[in-house]
Amino acid sequence: MIQPQTILKVVDNSGARIVKCLRILKKGNNPRKGFIGDILVVSVQKLRSKNRQFSKVLKGDVVLALVVKTKNPLKRKTGISLRFDENCAVLLNKQRRPLATRMFGVFPRELRSLKFNRVLTLSSGFF
């Protein structure tokens, strides 16, 4: 469950390490809470490296992000619930395409039904 002011880890190679949620754009059942597959407006808090020429974003930039992992469990129709260790996001551009060329870790299969196939193909895998 993601709310405004929540700190999220970035799991791509866009150059950002930590972002802070400012607003939830794509709302699920609850308009005040974000879950896996929701789109957020975030602000970049920390960068991965001090070398700015490899970073696609700078500290303080406001960009869109897609929530890919949450600590709150995700329940599937089969009865299985998925829970991750940390809240993670992937940065997007204004056309809602990924900024990065690589994603780290495995992502839930529910992103495919939400039309984020490009994020899944760039990731290590999905389950």
Describe it for me?
By secondary structure, the chain is mainly β. It has a single domain, classed as Ribosomal Protein L14, CATH 2.40.150. The chain is built from two helices and nine strands. It has helices at residues 110-113, 117-122; strands spanning 7-10, 16-24, 39-47, 62-69, 74-75, 81-82, 88-92, 106-107, 125-126. The strands form three sheets. A five-stranded mixed barrel has the order 1-2-3-4-7. A two-stranded antiparallel sheet has the order 5-6. A hairpin with a 5-residue loop joins strand 1 (7-10) and strand 2 (16-24). The longest helix is centred in the C-terminal third of the chain and has 6 residues, at 117-122. The protein is globular. The chain starts with 6 loop residues before the first strand and ends with a strand. The mean pLDDT is 90.
Properties at a glance:
127 residues; mainly beta; Ribosomal Protein L14; five-stranded mixed barrel; two-stranded antiparallel sheet; 2 helices; 8% helix
Topology:
Elements: E1 7-10, E2 16-24, E3 39-47, E4 62-69, E5 74-75, E6 81-82, E7 88-92, E8 106-107, H1 110-113, H2 117-122, E9 125-126
Parallel strand pairs: 1-7, 8-9
Antiparallel strand pairs: 1-2, 2-3, 3-4, 4-7, 5-6
